[in-house]
Amino acid sequence: MFGAVISGYAILDGFDLGAGALHLLLNKETSRRIALNAIGPLWDGNEVWLVIGGGALFAGFPVAYAAIFSAFYIPFMVFLVGIIFRGVAIEFRPNPSCCIAQYPEFHADHGST
Q1: Does the pTM exceed 0.70?
Q2: Integer Cα distance of 29 and 44 in angstroms
Q3: Domain definitions of the chain by residue range
Q4: Could you list the mean pLDDT of each consecutive 10-residue stretch along the chain, which spans 113 residues?
């Protein structure tokens, strides 16, 4: 069960992460906008797979859940911050009055890599 959930996340969110990482190679503003518009309506739905995966691991293997989350606390927090920055960059990119709008490409690029 847990493997199926993580595989679902890797397959479905791979497009979102790839489009965000592709920002590092795109130079024109229109290309960047097209890439973000392609993932715009779908990016946040794919993070549900992470919540289901954590719940499935906790329900099925609580000892493994405790060991994994204790051992990988810092990498999981870095991953979580990256997902948050990516989401903020995608949502606030069209709003030029927002303070995050100064660096949306940085957050979308590095939040996806």
Answers
A1: no
A2: 23
A3: 2-112
A4: 79 77 79 78 77 88 92 90 78 64 53 54
